[in-house]
Specification:
2 helices, 285 residues, single chain, alpha+beta, Lipocalin
C-alpha cells in the first residue's frame, strides 16, 4: 500500500471523507457567516466546474491588467499536436534560469518525451496552478475560514480570515493563505510556498519568495465564478504577472459525483529529493 508523502493537505480515502461530507452539509445548511466587520458577504455555495477549451492548458490573460502575461502554449503542427504541451519560453517575464527550464521542457515535449505535470503523478500542484485543475471545486465559508475543496484527489486548502500572515511561515506545498472580502470579491493572499511545485502546465518554476493573490467573484447572476490571480516572485520573474481561469456553476451536483482519486506510484519523477515513501514489498493476499 502506497502512503502519501509528507506535506500533503488532502482528505484521505477513508474516515476523513466523512469530515468532508460534514463540511458540505454544514455549508448547505447555513448561509455564509459574516466575517468581522463585513456585511453582504458574497455566497460561493455550489459546485464550480472549470471553463476551458478542449486541449488548452494555458491561463487566460486578465483583460487590461498591467504587468506580464501568463506563458502561452506553442502549438506544434502535426499528428501529435494535442499531445505536445509546450510553452513559449521567450515570454519576457522569465528570468534566464527559469527560461532555460521552460525551454528544456518544451524541447522534450516536441520530442514526444512528456514532461509530467504534478497532478499527473499525484503530487500537490501548488498555487496558482491548482486554479487550473480540470475537476470541480467547492467553497465552504465560515466566520474565520474559507475551506476550498477540490474534487481532484480530495485536495483541500484553508484560507484564514481576519488574520495577518505569520512573521516567518513554515514552507508548505500550498503556503500560508489569509483572506478577506472586498465587496463582492474574496481575496486570498498566499506566501510561504516551497519551491518544489510549478506555476503552470509547462512546469515553469518559482522560488520560495513567490507571492500569489487570488480573487474570486460570482458573476452572471450566480452562474459564473470569475477567478483571477497575480504572481510576484522577484527571483524567478522580471515583473509580476497574472492570469484567470473562469468557472461555471453545476447546480444540484454532489462533490463526489465523479470521484477523482489519484493512483500513481511512489517514484520521485521530478527529482525533488523528497523523503522516501514506504512501500509494501509483498502482496496482501
Amino acid at each position: 500500500m502506497a502512503l502519501r508523502p509528507k506535506g500533503f493537505s488532502m482528505l484521505q480515502h477513508t474516515g476523513p471523507r466523512l469530515i468532508a461530507c460534514a463540511l458540505l452539509i454544514t455549508a448547505a445548511a447555513v448561509a455564509p457567516i459574516y466575517a468581522q466587520g463585513q456585511t453582504n458577504v458574497p455566497d460561493f455555495s455550489g459546485l464550480w466546474q472549470r471553463n476551458a477549451v478542449k486541449g488548452e492548458v494555458t491561463f487566460d490573460p486578465i483583460p487590461g491588467a498591467p504587468g506580464g502575461q501568463p506563458i502561452e502554449r506553442v502549438w506544434t503542427p502535426g499528428p501529435d499536436i494535442e499531445e505536445i504541451v509546450s510553452g513559449n519560453y521567450d515570454n519576457p517575464i522569465l528570468q534566464p534560469w527559469a527560461r532555460e527550464i521552460v525551454k528544456a521542457n518544451t524541447e522534450s515535449e516536441i520530442k514526444l518525451v512528456h514532461v509530467h505535470e504534478a497532478d499527473d503523478l499525484c503530487w500537490p500542484v501548488g498555487v496558482p496552478q491548482i486554479i487550473n485543475l480540470r475537476e470541480n471545486v467547492r467553497f465552504v465559508q465560515s466566520k474565520n475560514q474559507v475551506t476550498i475543496i477540490y474534487q481532484r484527489d480530495h485536495l483541500v486548502r484553508r484560507v484564514y480570515l481576519n488574520q495577518k500572515h505569520s512573521a516567518n511561515p513554515k514552507l508548505d506545498w500550498y503556503g500560508e493563505s489569509v483572506g478577506r472580502y472586498e465587496g463582492d470579491t474574496l481575496v486570498v493572499d498566499t506566501i510561504g510556498q516551497n519551491d518544489k511545485s510549478a506555476v503552470d502546465a509547462y512546469r515553469t518554476p518559482h522560488t520560495t519568495k513567490i507571492h500569489v493573490v487570488e480573487r474570486y467573484r460570482v458573476i452572471n447572476g450566480g452562474k459564473g465564478l470569475d477567478t483571477s490571480f497575480t504572481v510576484d516572485d522577484p527571483d524567478a520573474f522580471y515583473k509580476p504577472w497574472g492570469g484567470r481561469r473562469p468557472r461555471f456553476l453545476l447546480p444540484n451536483r454532489p462533490l463526489n459525483d465523479m470521484d477523482q482519486i489519484c493512483a500513481a506510484g511512489n517514484e520521485d519523477h521530478f527529482d525533488l529529493g523528497l523523503d522516501p515513501v514506504p512501500q509494501e514489498a509483498t502482496p496482501d493476499f
